[in-house]
Amino acid sequence: MENVRERVDIKLISNEEKLRKYVAKPSFKRFKIFNEHLIGVEMTRVSIELNRPAYLGAQILDISKNLMAWFHHLVMKPKYGNNLELLFTDTDSLCYEIATDDIYEDMENMREYFDTSNYDESLPIHSNNYKKIPGRIAMKEFIGLRPKMYSLIYNEVDHRDDNLESEVREVAKITTKGITKTARDKHEHFRRCLLKTE
């Protein structure tokens, strides 16, 4: 959630007269000399427009946390007990390691908690009953290497308007904190790193 109070006002100045003008203002905070022809001046913001509904964002996060805590403590823990390990949580997701004979059979018995509309229609677990309903889960593969560094694959359905056909495509959501985008663009890189294959 963006906090508009934390925005800064930076002026890049290459003119000594302008520099004196900005330094004399009461809103002057500090300056940084980049070279003999360019100086950056940071000014305190004189007015702030509070145009972000921070209360709404906070409420959405609270509802999400309550839903996730409810799912973990009242659905998953009673079902699996010590055979369940919570690997990590993110703002809107839980990732588990589950020791069970057949996870798909378990999911079929807990169908009301999962969005399986993106699964292959030939699978018995496939259902459109909870398609795109918030709070339902749909994922094919997950690889987590460390906190804030993971990749997951899910199917996304593209519905075409011209006819009733739809196209299913595989989508990867990749999260890597502190790594450039070009170095983290493929799910396969995560798989190779996890399995240590070249």
UniProtKB/TrEMBL annotation:
<dbReference type="InterPro" id="IPR043502">
    <property type="entry name" value="DNA/RNA_pol_sf"/>
</dbReference>
<protein>
    <recommendedName>
        <fullName>DNA-directed DNA polymerase</fullName>
    </recommendedName>
</protein>
